[in-house]
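The records we work with from here on pair a chain with its fold. These numbers are not coordinates but entries in a learned vocabulary of local backbone shapes. To see the layout at work, look at the sequence and tokens printed below:
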Amino acid sequence: MTTLVLIPGLVSDRIVWEPLAETAADMFPVHHADVSTQASITEMAQSVLAAVDGPIIAVGHSMGGRVAMEMARIEPDRVKGLVLANTGHHPKREGEEAKRQAMVDLGNESMEKLADQWLPGMLDPARVSDEALVAELKKMVLRAGPAVHERQIRALVGRPDANAYLKDITCPVLLVTARQDVWSPISQHEEIAAAVADPELVTIENAGHFAPVEWPAETTAAIMEWLTRRFGDDNG
């Protein structure tokens, strides 16, 4: 059977994809990927591929989407589908390294300060005052800690240029974007859709960069509709 591999993003863990995991478990074996120990996006992809046997549908959020695309590059015959949520494909941008280093320095000083500065921009502005949501995400960031944060930032700075191989990704791809995601805007996902062979795009309304956590039911429903339509017969 095809395994649904769930990949979190920067300083994130399984809570991002837990609602999808619970719903999809009736259709697929589910594997929560650990991308907290590797030094590069490519090493993350290789590690996740090695952890699971057989065909895979890779579901990645943010940095996890980059890992998922790299998995499809490395083993295209095994990766049968991609779900790319709130992610990007560009190589390192001018001035990015200095900005990332400032966040590393802040995280090494205090992950509490990092979370307080970083999280508001990751959410729909209307949800920044949602104390329960912010508290859940802050706990997640604190669980990651400064060493994981720095290692993942270094991996992102040295990320592969997915533009170089998007045209070679022929499996079905679902792009999940969010209306208020300023970090990974809709236009970025439209660029990925234009490059791959078999794309679909869905937009989660009233959500920011953490759409799977901001609106878990809506995000899960959108992904499950696609999975059922495109892969239901394969794993049924």
About this structure: The chain is about 50% helix and 15% strand. Residues 131-157 form the longest helix (27 residues). The CA atoms of residues 58 and 144 lie 22 Å apart. The mean pLDDT is 96.
